[in-house]
Amino acid sequence: MSTTASNTSRSRGKAPGGERVADWADGRLGIYTLAKSNMRKIFPDHWSFMLGEVCLYSFLIIILTGVYLTLFFHPSMNEVQYHGSYVPLQGQLMSEAFNSTLHISFDVRGGLLIRQIHHWAAVVFIAGMFVHMMRVFFTGAFRKPREVNWLFGFLLFVLGMFTGFTGYSLPDDLLSGTGVRFMEGAILSVPIVGTYISFFLFGGEFPGGDFVARFYSIHILLLPGIMLGLVVGHLILVFYHKHTQFAGPGKTNNNVVGMPLLPVYMAKAGGFFFLVFGVIAFVAAIAQINPIWAIGPYRPDQVSTGAQPDWYMGMAEGLIRAMPGWEINLWGHTLVLGVFIPLVLFGVILVAIAAYPFIEAWVTGDKREHHILDRPRNAPTRTAFGVAWLTVYFVMLIGGGNDLFATHFHLSINAVTWFVRISYFVGPVIAFIVTKRICLGLQRRDKDKVLHGRETGTIKRLPHGEFIEVHEPLSQEQLHTLTAHDQYKPLQLGPAVDENGVERKVRATQKVRAKLSEAYFGEESQIAKPSVEEYKEITSGHGHH
Amino acid sequence: MSSQDIPEENLPAQQGHAHGAVDVADEKNPFADPGLPPHEHRIQDIDEEAAKRSERTVALLFTVSMLATIGFIVSYVAVPHDRSIYVFPIGHVSALNFALGVTLGLALFCIGAGAVHWARTLMSDVEVADERHPIEASPELRAKVHEDFRQGAKESALGRRKLIRNTMLGALTLVPLSGVMLLRDLGPLPGTSLRHTMWSKGKLLVNMNTNEPLRPEDVAVGSLTFAKPEGLEEHDEDFQKEIAKAALMIVRLQPENIKDKRELEWSHEGIVAYSKICTHVGCPISLYEQQTHHVLCPCHQSTFDLSDGARVIFGPAGHALPQLRIGVNDEGYLEALGDFEEPVGPAFWERG
């Protein structure tokens, strides 16, 4: 709408209703200033940028369905007799929590659907965060200025795991009770304070009559409250930093190229919420999740085989299954290393990935802002570290399902466990080396493409009988994209003596840093990208080499 | 983490100096940024007929969504909640859950698909570049903020009036202690409660399934029997807590097969009673291999040899299962001859 048009409409009478509401709000909330920088904000397009959206939307779905579930769920461990419509359990003693979950599943119309959407969305939420984190990690999107947002995201991932855990413990069914017992055993292994923490958490001896009510307030209020704050902070920072983008023609570190929030991303992102919700609702319609009625209410002396936690606790489960049962008894005390070491490792493995951006920033010494994403191949050491980390993670997921692997593939449980124990140490090393080689190979291929062009698949026979493949030079867009990445030089410690022949003091941290820097950016760790001279020399005269 | 000591030349050349399409490709630098490629029109941009088709597709998707919502309401009212139907290939499912889920899923998905199709085909897809600005404040602003802060700090006199500062810090440090104190009543102190179970001398071993006291002849060779102490009933208030410690498994071995001397002494005619609670993290053990006398915890696969003092032969458990000393009373029933001599279940710091 042009200014003249709006002026004429103004002169004829009052402004349209929407405008008047906006004016009213602006006078009180300053929305025009906010809208100026955000309404037409540019977002770049790439399929991998959608992963974070999956997380955001599944989080919203979890909140919506979770509120509905609280209307029917009774977070109480009082014992009642079941009289609902699920025949096999009728007359059985169970906690009110389990009773009300059965009520939701069988007697509230649509209750089972909402319960299944809630659970499926939680599984998708955490899987989405995992993959989103991998995207951010492997493309180096965590670099300055986004380190804080990386930590926000990491906290969301960890809190999401614990919210999930407390959530599936609430129905007080046999499977979840077994998981809670596992957690209690892990807490008991903590030296000195473990027994006290367990007694304070459960209000006495396990299982007591309190934990469902306590987990309930943690699950629906404490953790989601913190997470909601973190999600808002995460999004504000995404807007404030502006989204990262991949290198390409016209895309620099000082701009962001894409389409505006209004209307394109409003429609795309808003629509995507409905797509995610729709798919999860559909999955909840056809795929059963956590059928709590199948094995009944929790009894500490009963268990079923093949007990598995939700997937995101599989790593912890694997650590605890693979660890040998070491125990040290000294001076009347027991150090339960067989359980405590897995508990510590669980934290260490997670913190390693959280701390990585700061370690890399220290090694590179780079304090500049980075808005252009790395292709994983162009940061071989980082990529290799990430794959090694994933290897540990997935080896432990296998460990967490060692019984299932044994029964489904007809293997010995002992063999599977030993495989996991050995792979925990060997796997990441192999993965690191292999990944680095692959990255370097891909860098060489990129270099080859830049210098010699694209393989066309056309075979030409030269007059003297030689066959050659015709290579087609790349366009300038492609040349720029393939050579736009940064390459660091390894840090040099300098000569051991200064100009006066006096020995220079080099701090130990500096030596470590130089070593790491060499490992990251030495000749073994990156292929020098083609220079303009090389390119000109090859392309100028004799065509083929 | 200072990086001042990293020489500038180790960092890659200044990034992003090429701004938009400033760096025109030339003889000098074939790798230079050619700038944003020209916009390519979609069929909908040039052909109004195609745009109309897109419009109709979007409208159709939104209409399907409306119909699906009506379908949801109809299913909610019409489908009985206990009806089960066969759906290929997933098998028998709750009809109501299936109908509600599919209609809700469709209603939501079509809104999303419509919006995305609208954005992709009809909204402008011209790529625009937005400038970024460094996040760091300018040196002037930085100096100004620091100066303001110094001014404020000076006016508060916090640095000068040490008495105020120190007492305030003291008060603020102490006040959270009230909160910590309030947590004390979350639970009782452990004391020695983890060392004791309901078992004591003379308590009969009651079959968990039949709720009848066990006689030696009830325990067949090769079978695994679960038992609880007499007087513990399912509707007791403490049932869960007590059974979590007192659950017992009973097997009959040939006395000559028992390798452990103490185990033999504490058994009765080859009948041995062990805690059912795994010493790893407390799962109930439930799998018995009668040929080898091994029991396996299904949670984490700790394996114990019941013919050899229930020592750990595989898996993550750290110590043997505690054995309960049993005998037979005058009436011929199996009874406990005392409590477990060591704590049952997972190990803990005070276990010793």
TrEMBL record, chain A:
Keyword Electron transport assigned: yes
UniProt domain Cytochrome b/b6 N-terminal region profile: residue ranges: 21-247
Cellular component terms (Gene Ontology): plasma membrane
Keywords: Cell membrane, Electron transport, Heme, Iron, Membrane, Metal-binding, Respiratory chain, Translocase, Transmembrane, Transmembrane helix, Transport
Top EC category: translocase
GO BP field: respiratory electron transport chain
Membrane topology, record value: Multi-pass membrane protein
Name this protein carries in UniProt: Cytochrome bc1 complex cytochrome b subunit
UniProtKB/TrEMBL annotation, chain B:
Membrane-topology annotation of the record: Multi-pass membrane protein
Broad class of the protein's primary localization: membrane
Pfam family of the protein (one): QcrA_N
GO cellular component terms listed in the entry, alphabetical order: plasma membrane
Compartment(s) where it occurs, according to its Swiss-Prot or TrEMBL record: Cell membrane
Transmembrane regions: 58-78, 98-119, 163-183
Gene3D superfamilies registered for this protein in UniProt: Rieske [2Fe-2S] iron-sulphur domain (2.102.10.10)
Region listing for Disordered, in residue ranges: 1-40
Example GO molecular function: monooxygenase activity
UniProt entry keywords in alphabetical sequence: 2Fe-2S, Cell membrane, Disulfide bond, Electron transport, Iron, Iron-sulfur, Membrane, Metal-binding, Oxidoreductase, Respiratory chain, Transmembrane, Transmembrane helix, Transport
Record flagged with keyword Nucleus: no
Rieske domain residues: 240-335
Alphabetized InterPro entries for the sequence: QcrA_N, Rieske_2Fe-2S, Rieske_2Fe-2S_sf, Rieske_Fe-S_prot
Function (record text): Iron-sulfur subunit of the cytochrome bc1 complex, an essential component of the respiratory electron transport chain required for ATP synthesis. The bc1 complex catalyzes the oxidation of menaquinol and the reduction of cytochrome c in the respiratory chain. The bc1 complex operates through a Q-cycle mechanism that couples electron transfer to generation of the proton gradient that drives ATP synthesis.
Family of the protein in this entry: Belongs to the Rieske iron-sulfur protein family.
Subunit structure: The cytochrome bc1 complex is composed of a cytochrome b (QcrB), the Rieske iron-sulfur protein (QcrA) and a diheme cytochrome c (QcrC) subunit.
Name assigned to this protein: Cytochrome bc1 complex Rieske iron-sulfur subunit
Source organism (scientific name): Streptomyces galbus
